[in-house]
Amino acid sequence: MSLLTPDFGLLFWMTIIFGILFFLLARFGFPVITGMVEKRSERIENSIREAKEAEQQLEQLERRQADIVEKARLEEGRILEEARQAGAGIIAQAREQARKQAEEIVTKGREEIAAQKDMAARELKNRIADISLAVAGKVIRREVSSDSSQKELLDALAAEAERSGETD
């Protein structure tokens, strides 16, 4: 028996053992192996599918985040604009209030000046009247030394009083 040319009996038994082994493997081993390979390929496919879904969810989250950031920026701009408008309104209101107060102060000042002017004018008239009466009294004493001149003066004064009474 040589290794290069085996005996017929050896070949026969090797073929039968190979057939039995192949039958056992085909019946019990290959289904288990193919089942494990199929399970593994399903797991890989599921993992790939889940990875794609996770990637899509991540993209959706990124879009939502971008939308939220954009909305926040718009809201910030709107709030800043409202604050500017409110500030401008407060400034305008303060200016208007200051203008009204200034007008009131000026009006009160003018009224006070007018009142003081009127009071000064009355005082001046009273002093002038006092001075005029004093001067007139002195002039009349000098001129009215006789009874006839006193009577003429009284008549003239009475006539003047009647005329001024009619005009008032």
Structural features, described:
The protein has one domain (8-167). With 168 residues, the chain is an all-alpha fold. The model has no long low-confidence stretch (mean pLDDT 87). The protein has two helices and no strands. The longest helix is centred in the middle third of the chain and has 136 residues, at 8-143.
Principal-axis shape equals rod-shaped
Number of strands: 0
| Uncertain ranges | none
In whole angstroms, the N-to-C terminal distance is 174 Å
- How is the biggest beta sheet arranged? none
H/E topology pattern: HH
Helix content: over 70%
- Based on secondary structure, the structural category is mainly alpha
The tally of structural domains comes to: 1
Residue-averaged pLDDT: 87
In terms of DSSP E residues, the strand content is: under 5%
**Number of helices, counting only DSSP H or I runs of 4 residues or more:** 2
- Gyration radius, in Å: 65 Å
Offer a quick outline of the entry:
The protein has 168 residues and is mainly alpha-helical. The chain is built from two helices and no strands. It has one domain (8-167).
Key terms:
single chain; 168 residues; mainly alpha; 2 helices
List the helices and strands and how they pair.
Elements: H1 8-143, H2 147-167
